[in-house]
Design a protein that fits this description.
The complex is a heterodimer of chains A (374) and B (522).
Chain A (H helix, E strand, L loop, with lengths): L2 H30 L5 H16 L12 H26 L7 H18 L6 H28 L3 H24 L31 H18 L1 H11 L1 H7 L3 H27 L11 H11 L7 H22 L5 H14 L5 H22 L1
Chain B lengths: L7 E11 L5 E11 L3 E5 L6 H8 L7 E6 L2 E3 L4 H6 L2 E4 L11 H5 L6 E2 L3 E2 L1 H14 L15 H14 L4 E5 L7 H16 L3 E5 L3 H7 L2 E6 L2 E7 L5 H8 L18 E11 L5 E11 L3 E5 L6 H8 L7 E6 L2 E2 L5 H6 L2 E4 L3 H5 L6 H5 L10 E2 L2 E2 L1 H14 L16 H13 L5 E5 L7 H16 L3 E5 L3 H7 L2 E6 L2 E6 L7 H8 L7 H5 L5
Parallel strand pairs in B: 3-10, 3-11, 6-9, 9-10, 15-22, 15-23, 18-21, 21-22
Antiparallel strand pairs in B: 1-2, 1-4, 4-5, 7-8, 11-12, 13-14, 13-16, 16-17, 19-20, 23-24
Helix pairs in contact in B: 8-17, 14-15
The chains are: A mainly alpha (374), B alpha/beta (522).
């Protein structure tokens, strides 16, 4: 099958997965919909589906709204970064789940620099975000080196590390950095010099971070497909023995892939924190890392597709929230819908029978063409 | 029922087996095993022994032919059916649960119950002890399987089959993992079982073992039945003739080699495997520029370990290896390649390629960091495309484009990708480990011609092959390995005949130390 046909198949497969999960979602919505009779339930299901599918980009009056769209785009900023981070790590066959703790650590460290290290406008933001990125890179050295040297499962290690990071940050916030004049645990406000500037001033908090995220999508894609290091990461992910036999430094690259993942997650944390907040107040894992894993999976670990997947998730997220607000559908439903979509994307055999048919058909066609030439 | 001879415990008549991928593993094979005998099934690797036994144990179904057990025609659709007919198999790789005790393994799938629910562990121990004593196979029922030595694991496997009522035991290369002491112990136990009326089918290609304990033997070669003999009436030479031989002789045109300087030099190389068995024993040889040195031998005589050491997939226990006078032991693969060593690995799917990556990506794996393929931080895609296009043309790799996934190609074309990369890496030494195994005739011929061409252009080639035809036709001079050592060195491979080769391969003959020492060109 040609590259084009493969791509067509992937898109079709994604589309079918979404349709099936929406169908399952409709059933679930129907079950939890308000109304006594079947007809009433049906009509409130229809209404809920409208909120889920169309409303996210409309305003209250039902017309297209830029504000609604920019709201969604703003939500994508951190998840693009964690999605990219996960793409890189998963490409090396390293199931590192540390993007979650990573984005929290990146946000925290950037916040500290933004509060306590005064600098000029612009440079302050850059330094703060970079400090966050470096801190997460160091954090990812732990699962990376343990994996490379002692064959410790990076999945277990990074998963546990998320909680270590979270509790360490909570401890430090409570003990050292809390603004004692406030009613909740939050830091002092960030210096204005450290804030990530807004892209559009319409209250969406869509910052320049979004542009930065797209730039990193391109950079990550170039890195993975156009440099020797990205190439080595992918080859190790496909066949580690082959990489070793070919003379690649497998252990070093395994560590590097996780450190790069850490840098990306850390950048996301800093950009999110300094773009959409005025002080640090996260007391639990933000969930962006988990979403990033879903996104990487939907994107098939291809950085170029990450923004699409992130948009899809953000859109769905908003739709579900609207549904919960206006139709009395439980907000937890989004988790179920996401899980269903995730399952269909992750199921490698899904539609493989159809794929086989396509392969056979294209092979036969080629044979005919060859014979035709003769 | 009368038509079948009840003298036999097992009769397999006109058995043929064609696998779905088209490989004919057995062609019209007959195997008759008398009741109460130890019957050897012999043949080289790939001769079809395992396939035949898998059919007898119900793991595979014959394409045609019939199987008669104790005078009754049977249809062995699964191991459960085979066990019900009193057939038990001890696999070469043990099928035991390491974290369970011996007694628990023994009763797996037929657990004695207390009150219908709880596992009656005491009963399991009792059963184990009873059988252990009855057959004089000593095991410790309470020990965990992961803690017991290999020899005892094998006893557990045999007991497992016996507990399930097996009267016919298939042992698949039982001595391959055993030390000498464990082997002689096993033989005593097998003779004991025979006395009690059990029938044993013993798969092996070790001649001395066969001569020692079997009553009769059947030989397979290339999936065909070569004959059955009474062990006491047969000479080792005859067995070797039956087992080793060439059916079709493909010839490769080559002119006389003119070897010059030594490139690869191996001295007193030693390797002991994880079971404590010496696999490579004081091995010394040289490969010179412009020659192909072949290594022949039945598989499992140290060839795999030798290649693993040369490419640092295993660590040598002693000795030295130099390439152009520089040590390569302990270097990593990148450094070994830097010294000009290229390897066609035996297992091309495991080491040779990344199946999900494109042809192009597979062609640059060893040189992705080289200056000529990079410009600054980035790949020079133009150069990479150019190079891969050239290689695909030169090596006639049949594909739609360089972007096609390697895993989608045929075996022969996959091997051409490997060969194209290795041969174009500007090597001084090529190690070709089973370079044409399982690939089509066209690709085979192409790769063989390339090997000769490269050696004549002044590259040293070390060829390891279980394919007798290949190793005899291609090599300028030749080593036969047996038991981790060199059994014979032949300066002119063209003067060899199959029969003589067979005798060296099976360890019947061995040259003197002086004769063998000639392979070191000092």
């Amino acid at each position: 099958m040609s590259k084009k046909a493969s791509l067509r198949f992937s898109i079709l497969r994604g589309f079918v997965a979404i349709l099936i999960s929406l169908f399952i979602a409709s059933i679930l919505i129907f079950i939890s919909a308000e109304g006594g009779s079947f007809g009433e339930k049906l009509s409130s299901t229809g209404e809920a589906l409208v909120y889920l599918i169309v409303r996210p980009i409309l305003n209250g009056k039902g017309a297209f709204s830029v504000k609604s769209l920019t709201d969604i785009l703003a939500c994508m900023i951190p998840t693009i970064f964690t999605g990219l981070a996960t793409c890189v790590m998963f490409s090396a066959n390293q199931f590192n789940l540390g993007a979650e703790g990573g984005i929290m650590l990146g946000a925290f460290v950037s916040a500290l620099v933004a509060i306590y290290v005064p600098m000029g406008t612009g440079i302050h933001m850059v330094v703060a975000v970079l400090a966050g990125a470096v801190s997460v890179a160091v954090m990812m050295l732990i699962p990376g080196i343990l994996k490379a040297k002692l064959d410790v499962s990076e999945m277990v290690c990074s998963l546990m590390l998320n909680y270590v990071v979270m509790y360490a940050i909570k401890f430090m916030m409570n003990t050292y950095f809390a603004d004692k004049t406030k009613g909740q645990v939050q830091s002092l406000p960030f210096e204005k010099t450290a804030l990530v500037p807004q892209l559009i001033n319409n209250g969406s908090k869509l910052t320049w971070g979004f542009i930065l995220a797209l730039i990193f999508v391109a950079l990550t894609a170039l890195f993975m497909y156009r440099t020797r290091w990205g190439y080595a990461i992918r080859m190790i992910g496909i066949n580690r023995d082959f990489a070793k036999y070919s003379g690649m430094k497998v252990a070093a690259i395994i560590v590097a892939s996780q450190v790069i993942g850490g840098v990306l997650a850390g950048l996301g944390g800093g950009v999110e924190m300094l773009g959409r907040n005025e002080f640090y107040s996260w007391s639990a894992l933000p969930g962006y890392g988990w979403t990033g894993i879903t996104i990487a999976c939907i994107a098939g670990n291809n950085p170029i597709l990450v923004p699409l997947a992130a948009f899809f998730i953000a859109y769905l997220d908003k739709g579900c929230n609207l549904m919960a607000t206006y139709c009395g559908i439980p907000a937890q439903l989004i988790d179920i819908i996401q899980a269903v979509i995730f399952l269909f994307f992750a199921a490698e055999q899904f539609l493989s029978g159809y794929r086989q048919k396509l392969v056979v058909r294209s092979a036969q066609q080629e044979l005919r063409e060859k014979e035709g030439q003769k | 029922m009368a038509e079948y001879n009840s003298e036999y415990a097992v009769e397999m008549r006109h058995i043929s087996k064609v696998y779905p991928n088209g490989v004919a593993a057995n062609q019209d094979v007959d195997l008759c095993v008398r009741k109460g005998e130890i019957h050897a099934l012999m043949g080289e690797n790939g001769a079809g022994k395992s396939t035949l036994m898998k059919m007898l144990f119900g793991l595979e179904q014959p394409t045609s032919g019939e199987i008669i057990v104790n005078g009754e025609k049977v249809n062995l659709t699964s191991p459960t059916v085979a066990i019900a007919h009193g057939i038990g198999m001890v696999h070469q790789h043990f099928m035991l649960v390491p974290s369970l005790t011996v007694a628990e393994n023994m009763v797996l799938g037929m657990v004695p119950k207390k009150n219908g629910v709880l596992i009656d562990y005491a009963k399991a121990v009792e059963i184990t002890k009873e059988y252990s004593e009855k057959f004089n196979l000593e095991v410790d029922p309470d020990a965990k399987v992961m803690d017991i030595p290999v020899g005892m694991k094998q006893k557990v496997e045999i007991l497992k089959a016996l507990v399930r009522g097996a009267k016919i035991l298939i042992l698949d290369e039982p001595t391959a993992v055993l030390t000498t002491q464990e082997t002689s112990e096993l033989f005593k136990e097998l003779v004991n079982l025979k006395k009690q009326g059990y029938t044993i089918i013993f798969i092996s290609h070790k001649l001395n073992e066969i001569m020692q304990i079997t009553d009769r033997l059947s030989v397979l070669r290339g999936g065909k039945f070569m004959g059955v003999r009474e062990t006491k009436d047969v000479t080792p030479q005859e067995i070797s003739r039956l087992m080793v031989g060439r059916d079709v002789v493909l010839t490769v045109e080559k002119d006389q080699a003119k070897p010059t300087d030594t490139v690869l030099s191996v001295r007193d190389l030693e390797y002991v495997n994880e079971y404590g068995k010496t696999m490579v024993n004081k091995l010394s040889f040289d490969v010179r520029k412009g020659e192909i040195l072949g290594i022949a031998g039945v598989e499992g005589n140290g060839q795999k370990e030798l290649v693993d050491i040369l490419f640092q997939f295993a660590t040598a226990g002693g000795g030295s290896v130099t390439v152009n006078g520089e040590n390569i032991l302990g270097l990593n693969q990148a450094q070994i390649r830097e010294k000009g060593v290229a390897l066609i690995p035996e297992d091309r799917m495991l080491y040779g390629i990344a199946g999900d990556a494109s042809i192009e990506e597979n062609l640059i794996s060893d040189r992705c960091g080289k200056k000529e393929l990079n410009s600054g931080l980035m790949f020079n895609m133009k150069k990479i495309h150019q190079m891969s296009k050239q290689l695909i043309e030169d090596y006639i790799i049949l594909c739609k484009s360089a972007e096609q996934k390697v895993g989608m190609l045929s075996g022969g074309n996959i091997q051409k990708v490997v060969v194209a990369r290795e041969f174009s890496s500007n090597p001084q030494l090529i190690i070709a480990d089973q370079p044409t195994r399982g690939i089509d005739v066209g690709a085979t011929e192409f790769i063989r011609k390339k090997l000769v061409e490269l050696s004549r252009s002044g590259i040293a080639v070390l060829l390891i092959s279980a394919d007798l035809n290949e190793v005899m036709e291609l090599s300028d001079s030749l080593i036969v390995m047996h038991g981790g050592r060199i059994a014979g060195y032949f300066e002119d491979a063209s003067k060899l005949d199959d029969e003589m080769m067979g005798e060296y391969m099976l360890g019947l003959k061995r040259q003197s130390e002086e004769e063998i020492r000639r392979v070191c060109h000092e």
